[in-house]
Design brief:
Structural class: mainly beta
Order of helices and strands: HEEEEEEEEEE
Largest sheet: 4 strands, antiparallel
Strand order of the largest sheet: 1-2-5-6
Helix content: under 10%
Number of strands: 10
Length: about 160
């Protein structure tokens, strides 16, 4: 009985440590995603000091996205994105992508798939209210490659179309 009560107590915490979902991006196009709670003990941090402020400038030896100034640890991280076009699945690179939104759930409005002559570009936008960034993946010849991961505003222009 104690085990059952313990599991009932822990269930809300387990649910929030990882969320998954599927988005319908277009006809015959889906995006499966997974967001996991950020576990700081599994990462290495480099700190910088600027104007007297100490902040996290690198996580696991890499620039990271999801915070304006890196003052706090990320809350969560984008762990998985799988784009399916027809019957073809593409595992999309999600490294360095933290705090993808405020709610912990992704939304169709965060993505746009555009078909060009012989390839696709999946555009995306992530923000939890601070630390907005965009990622773009090019899908060509059965290969998905992340071609943009940036907080530069010029990469958000796809949202205006």
């Amino acid at each position: 009985m104690k085990i059952i009560l313990y599991l009932i107590f822990l269930m809300p915490f387990l649910v929030f440590s990882q969320t998954k979902g599927r988005l319908n991006i277009d006809i015959n196009v889906t995006l499966d995603w997974e967001i996991q709670e950020f576990e700081k003990s599994k990462h290495k941090f480099d700190y910088c000091i600027e104007s007297g402020w100490k902040y996290i400038c690198k996580i696991d030896d890499s620039e990271w996205f999801g915070s304006d100034f890196g003052m706090e640890y990320p809350k969560n991280q984008l762990a998985k994105l799988v784009l399916t076009i027809g019957n073809q699945k593409y595992q999309l690179l999600t490294s360095k992508m933290f705090n993808p939104n405020f709610s912990g759930y992704l939304d169709e409005n965060q993505f746009k798939l555009v078909k060009y002559n012989d390839y696709f570009i999946l555009y995306s936008f992530f923000s939890d209210g601070a630390g907005s960034y965009s990622a773009h993946w090019k899908i060509k010849n059965d290969i998905a490659e992340r071609i943009v991961l940036s907080n530069d505003e010029k990469y958000f222009e796809w949202q205006l179309d």
